[in-house]
Amino acid sequence: xxxxxxxxxxxxxxxxxxxxxxxxxxxxxxxxHEVTSPQAFEGLRLANRSPWRVDSxxxxxxxxxxxxxxxxxxxxxxxxxxxETLDKNCETFNITExxxxxxxxxxxxxxxxxxxxxxxxxxxxxxxxxxxxxxxxGALAFGIGTSEVExxxxxxxxxxxxxxxxxxxxxxxxxxxVTAKDIVLAIIGEIGTAGGTGYVIEFGGDAIRALSxxxxxxxxxxxxxxxxxxxxIAVDDKTIEYFKGxxxxxxxxxxxxxxxxxxxxxxxxxxxxDRVVHLDAAKISPQVTWGTSPDxxxxxxxxxxxxxxAQDAVQAISMRNALDYxxxxxxxxxxxxxxxxxxxxxxxxxxxxxxxxxxxxxKGRKVSGDIxxxxxxxxxxxxxxxxxxxGLDQIxxxxxxxxxxxxxxxxxxxxxxxxxxxxxxASTSNRNFEGRQGQGGRTHLVGPEMAxxxxxxGHFVDVRELD
Amino acid sequence: MQAFEKVDGLVLPINRPNVDTDAIIPKQYLxxxxxxxFGPNLFDDWxxxxxxxxxxxxxxxxxxxxxxxxxxxxxxxxxLLARDNFGCGSSREHAVWALMDYGIRVIIAxxxxxxxxxxxxxxxxLLLTFDADVIEAMFNEAETNGGYRMSVDLESSTVTKPGGQxxxxxxxxxxxxxLLNGLDDIDLTLQHAADIKAYEERxxxxxxxxxxxxx
Lengths: 467, 215
Known about the structure:
heterodimer; A: 467 residues; five-stranded parallel sheet; 15 helices; 19 strands; B: 215 residues; alpha/beta; Aconitase, domain 4; seven-stranded mixed sheet; globular
């Protein structure tokens, strides 16, 4: 029978299945960070258990780490304890960890692929919902909670039932100035934040195949914002090329053995999906979110929608709450929204290609005087190093951006980087929830070029028309 | 995991779709390395008018009396009534720990986000889904009548409303069995250790590069 990519990945990792479909799925790679792991390690200790396969685990602190001075200890004692707890747990259980002073440290979803610790055909988990990022490489990657982190540490397996399958096909060619971020925001706008609930989404179509691996990661990263369990993209030559020379990836004979298997990681031509959604790439414009849920999104040349036009009473309430929180009136043009801060970073958009794209917009220009803070937070120490070798840091600094150390930073504001109440931010991150970037902070999600352009003008602007 | 049999409890309606885990427990409280103590900060940004920090005594903070959870009629709720896609966003299990630490044992909504759904069952928090019209009726009743109670019985898979009306709910047998008995998932899985080892041996031959990690 014809199989989807999801079927193939599922079948290859199935250890056993009960009559009711409850299954044990084997996990190849377990990524760990400081926030969702301490209680899991504590659970192991209390039950006198040890990790099943230590060499499958890779740990890194990213959520709490400061993005400024790294020379001294972390200033916030609560954050410091959490980071030190990770260090201690990794030491005790003999787990590979990239500590804060390691050039390889960075956002867990950036460093996995960067090191080749993420590989095609793997099952990958992490106590973080954006683990879906790794699906870009034809891997089945899930975000899990702390109890499941402990479960995977102890058993190398997850207990789960198979999801339904959805194909989101983005057909045709994207216009200039439109990015992977705009594609995924448009998809979420189309199917809604619960549209993917119960599904694993495979992204296909010409526009997805045309994306770089970085772009594909951006798309898969935000699959969780559509509610899906995971997002996956078939392996092609770009995928295989990406892993050449990466430290944790196979090489030589082992690579030769892997490549034919990797090349089979795609859906059979006549495979059946439970749901199929088509989007026309040519119709996608640069996107900007206006509300407090990622599906509250419109093209940059549109206006803030009116709750009177809502589909039902629940949606109307939700839109009114969002407008109230965001301090916006229905009908105002997106390009008239003035900003206080700009954040370029996060597991969605902090890779070298994102920084290059933003730098291209910024080059030779200055950040608007209306912007209180514009910051760039590279996804990893190695991304930062690469950007500096290319002179991107200088372009940003010359324009008035701050150039920071790698971490999650203002995507979730667990460290010192945050919005003050009422401040409005153009952010390349993934969530515009209330309080996400700081209590009372107002987040508008955009791609890196759009964020850069907004920093220059002090308000949103169609990056395609920036002269 | 805490076993679940029956709850006869007060209903707290939170009338918003897409309640995300950032709203359930804001990020600053995620710095804790414990599983307990999150209850006072459940829905922190909606519940208090001033910003909160970990370790702060919440009795010194200003309550937002417009938020339904702070109204006298809803104190001591054990059943949360919610809208679509409850628990979306971050995978933080702290959201479940906060709800349970506050005293919530059951959440009823038209739909839940996947990761939150799994996290809840791992901790013995029972999540029930009903059709939109059933939920709508519950909201009408719970919002107009403070002190609205329902009874949830897992053994018979029924919710009983104040008038005595009984509603059957669906739950898969494995989850129901685990919840009723408060069983530890890891113990259950380790009963299949031989299967896991056999799988591993086979995969080492088929795909050795997956076992060549961290080198």
